[in-house]
From TrEMBL:
Residues that bind NADP(+): A67, V68, K69, P70
Pathway stated in the Swiss-Prot or TrEMBL entry: Amino-acid biosynthesis; L-proline biosynthesis; L-proline from L-glutamate 5-semialdehyde: step 1/1
Entry keyword annotation includes Ribonucleoprotein: no
Family: Belongs to the pyrroline-5-carboxylate reductase family.
The protein's name in its UniProt record: Pyrroline-5-carboxylate reductase
Catalytic reaction list: L-proline + NADP(+) = (S)-1-pyrroline-5-carboxylate + NADPH + 2 H(+); L-proline + NAD(+) = (S)-1-pyrroline-5-carboxylate + NADH + 2 H(+)
Domain of life: Bacteria
Species: Nitrosomonas communis
Length: 270
């Protein structure tokens, strides 16, 4: 499959990096990017062809991945509409609904909406997918195989669920890095070198994730096993409860979900 990315920023880079690691032929990837600096970066980093011309990047391609910001998608779609000839269009824009994108593309039928995440760069991503009912099976399989190359793939039957995927796994890596930042800060405050704090923090996340993944028990039970009566963890968790940390996280993730819906409403009215 020949793939063209329109937009060569953070998420396109993560997907391209993951595809190349999976031995996807770089010669089959092209990037249309209007920003000269980003274009050079992607060319240098991955050795794929790049350009500014939408028309040249679209003709004879099998799959077009729209990787511009949601706010930039309307303009790109309007330019793209007359150039399409049955290619599969995959949009990774947060919030933007397939019905709106289809309208912008002149009632286009072959659209898959995807919500990947940045660990795709190391093929440890997870992507939620939804297809317009008019997308043919072969195209769905193509979307699955592209995103599967960079991690797990999960199809949802109702498009609205993609906003939940966005709030959980699309934005999720940032929540995890935020927690890591706090742990690193404390490690250094307590006298560890930054490198020591980094090793301890990263291995703790890795170990906890692997343990949860391999265990039959739910994460609450695993947490209780760390929490000795009268010990250190109990004190830390008590403090977190007093500070309402879990509810704050729950509220924050709901806000991410609402923002995805809001972007869909606002931008979809264009
Ligand atoms: N960053 C993330 O973790 C994730 C992002 N997304 C979605 O991916 C999309 C891109 O996000 P990022 O990569 O973070 O943004 P970004 O700002 O890093 O990348 C967007 C790129 O598109 C380029 N661009 C803008 N207009 C263009 C045009 N007309 N033609 C060609 N290129 C154009 C920009 O110069 C920029 O390099 C967004 O819609 C976002 O919702 C989805 C999942 C995760
Ligand atoms: O923050 C955003 O809007 C995008 C979507 C999920 C991750 N980044």
């Amino acid at each position: 499959m020949n793939i063209t990315f329109v937009g060569g920023g953070n998420m396109a880079s993560a997907l391209i990096g993951g595809l190349l690691q999976q031995d996807y032929p770089g010669a089959q990837i092209h990037v249309v990017e209007i920003n000269a600096e980003n274009r050079e970066k992607i060319k240098h980093q991955f050795g794929v062809t790049t350009g500014t011309e939408l028309r040249a990047g679209i003709i004879d391609r099998d799959v077009i991945i729209l990787a511009v910001k949601p706010q930039q998608l309307f303009t790109v779609a309007k330019q793209l509409a007359p150039l399409l000839a049955g290619q599969l269009v995959i949009s990774i824009a947060a919030g933007i609904r397939t019905s709106d994108l289809s309208r912008w593309l002149g009632s286009y039928d072959y659209i898959v909406r995807a919500m990947p995440n940045t660990p795709s760069l190391i093929r440890a991503g997870v992507t939620g997918l939804y297809a317009l009912p008019t997308v043919i099976n072969q195209q769905k399989e193509n979307a699955t195989s592209i995103l599967n190359a960079v991690g797990l793939v999960l199809w949802v039957e109702q498009e609205a669920l993609l906003d939940a995927v966005t709030a959980i796994s699309g934005s999720g890596p940032a929540y995890v890095f935020y927690f890591m930042e706090a742990m690193l800060q404390v490690g250094v405050e307590l006298g560890l070198s930054i490198e020591q704090a980094r090793q301890l923090t990263l291995q703790t996340f890795l170990g906890a994730v692997q343990l949860a993944g391999q265990s039959e028990e739910d994460v609450g039970i695993l947490r209780s096993r760390v929490t000795s009566k009268g010990g250190t963890t109990e004190q830390a968790l008590l403090k977190m409860e007093q500070e309402d940390i879990k509810n704050a996280i729950v509220r924050a993730v709901h806000v991410a979900f609402k923002r995805a819906q809001q972007m869909g409403d606002e931008l979809g009215s264009l």
